[in-house]
Design goal:
By secondary structure, this protein is an alpha/beta fold. About 35% of the residues lie in helices and about 20% in strands. It folds into 2 domains: about 210 residues, 2-Layer Sandwich (Nucleotidyltransferase, domain 5); about 190 residues, 2-Layer Sandwich (Nucleotidyltransferase, domain 5), CATH 3.30.420. The chain has 15 helices and 18 strands. Strands 1, 2, 3, 4, 9, 10 and 11 form a 7-stranded mixed beta sheet that branches. A 7-stranded mixed beta sheet has the order 14-15-13-12-16-17-18, sandwiched between helices. The radius of gyration is 23 Å and the shape is globular.
Length: about 450
């Protein structure tokens, strides 16, 4: 029999489950998208039941599910009773309830702690019967895991102090929150029990404590050692790093590594792929790539933003960025936009390095922007670093890696090294490197001239 690890990704717009073999190969996937963000825990469970059934049908007779875990969106919380039964629908990280409480607490409104305080103040009687849970906690408990337990990545935005590894009980009490209503915190991958027979997944299927979707995504990239950096270029540009110490700035915050051996500083820029449909609304991007190939390097600079406001590597709510000085709609303008995003990516890496975060080896990269060979070559050349593309970079795979670490009784890092597969490397184009080094200097000078950097 071949052991299979299952990863569950519960997002705001859908759910995905994957099955991973011990060699790191995907042997099954099932997913369902919702028309709007889903906050009904009952629908989560019904969807999970259907998807696990579909996944089982994809497996071969010699495949045996041995462990599973789950990830979910950071900052989303829900109240459950002592039996783990939901008392309300979940409150998404984007839910505006709790905005006043966030200001009172001095935390971002996306943190679940702000909505938990809103719940305590708005519904005190029901609050006294409830316990804070995160979506992944809820799913794993319903599968058969221990109740009133969460992992330390989800717990961060609910107020958990990662440096002392405790809930700040005295501070919470001063805010009017009873520490007894907060869950026990364990490391991602900790065994929480076995799956109940009603789920029909087989005997002795281990349940491993979960992780946020961002943390799961970082595991899936393989960039989980000191010096390794991952970037995700989609609508926006996300940076995830590894450090020996926690780094907290107005635009950077750190998660604790699942093994507690280091820290995961992370940040996100509003610059990214959404500039392309904004400037080329009816664009055929593969065709635009082909036309732009002859224009690179363009010698132009840009910091392309769709609207004012930036959070990293520049923190300025009024920063408008700047577009390339080329004819709008032309192949050269398009090429310069690709280069501009790559310049912001390099500035982000330089900013991480300036914070003492080591940047070593290839950059592990994911996201829709990684589907463009031209953009990959531009980015590798402008960064003057190779880019590593992983075979299965999705968050559900990161959850499956946690399941594997529980089954193998090994560290999460060891599971990452056994399971993550590099699909290919993209090397810098030697003929472009010097031109891009000069363009990046001009980019930095443009920022300094505008007192932006």
């Amino acid at each position: 029999m071949q052991a299979v690890f299952v990863g569950i990704d519960l997002g705001t717009s859908g759910m995905r489950v994957v099955a991973l073999l011990e060699e790191g190969e995907l042997v099954g996937r099932a997913e369902r998208q919702w028309d709007s963000p889903e906050t009904n825990p009952g629908r989560w469970l019904r969807t999970l039941k259907a998807l696990l059934g579909q996944l089982k049908r994809e497996l071969n007779p010699d495949h045996r599910i041995v462990a599973l875990s789950a990830c979910s969106t950071s900052g989303t919380v829900l109240p459950v009773d002592g039996r783990g039964i939901p008392m309300e629908q979940a409150w998404l990280y984007s839910d505006r309830r709790g905005e006043a409480q966030a200001k009172q607490l001095g935390i971002p409104s996306s943190w679940g702690l702000s909505r938990w305080l809103w719940w305590a103040e708005s519904h005190p009687e029901r609050y006294r019967e409830s316990y804070l849970a995160h979506p992944a906690d809820f799913l794993l408990a319903q599968l058969g895991g221990r109740k009133q337990v969460t992992d330390h990545t989800h717990a961060l935005k609910s107020g958990f102090d990662l440096e002392t590894y405790t809930w700040p009980k005295e501070w919470l009490a001063r805010q009017g929150l009873n520490p007894k209503h907060f869950p026990e915190v364990v490391a991602p991958g900790t065994v929480l029990g076995t799956v109940g027979s009603e789920w029909d997944l087989g005997q002795e299927v281990l349940i491993a404590a979960g992780i946020t979707d961002g943390g799961a995504g970082q595991l899936a990239t393989g960039a989980s050692r000191i010096g390794q950096i991952s970037t995700s270029l989609g609508t926006t540009l996300i940076f995830k790093a590894n450090s020996t110490r926690p780094i907290q700035t107005p635009s950077l915050y750190s998660h604790l590594h699942p093994d507690k051996t280091g820290w995961w500083p992370g940040a996100a820029s509003f610059c990214g792929g959404r500039i392309l449909p904004y400037c080329f609304p009816s664009g055929d991007f593969p065709a635009l790539d082909q036309k732009a190939q002859a224009c690179v390097p363009t010698g132009l600079v840009s910091y392309p933003l769709v609207q004012p406001g930036e959070r990293f590597p520049i923190l300025d709510p009024s920063f408008t960025g700047f577009l390339p000085a080329a004819e709008k709609g032309s192949p050269r303008f398009y090429a310069a936009l690709l280069e501009g995003v790559a310049m912001v990516e390099r500035l982000g890496l330089d900013t991480l390095a300036a914070q003492g975060i080591p940047v070593q080896g290839p950059i592990f990269t994911t996201g829709g922007g990684s589907r463009s060979p031209l953009w990959l070559s531009i980015r590798a050349s402008l960064l003057n670093r190779s880019l590593a593309l992983v075979k299965h970079p999705e968050a559900a795979v990161g959850a499956a890696i946690l399941a594997a670490s529980a089954y193998w009784c090994c560290s999460v890092q060891q599971a990452v090294e056994r399971l993550v597969q590099i699909k290919s490397y993209v090397q810098p184009q030697p003929a472009w490197v010097d031109a891009y080094a000069a363009a990046y200097q001009a980019f930095q000078a443009r920022l300094k001239d505008g007192l932006l950097y």
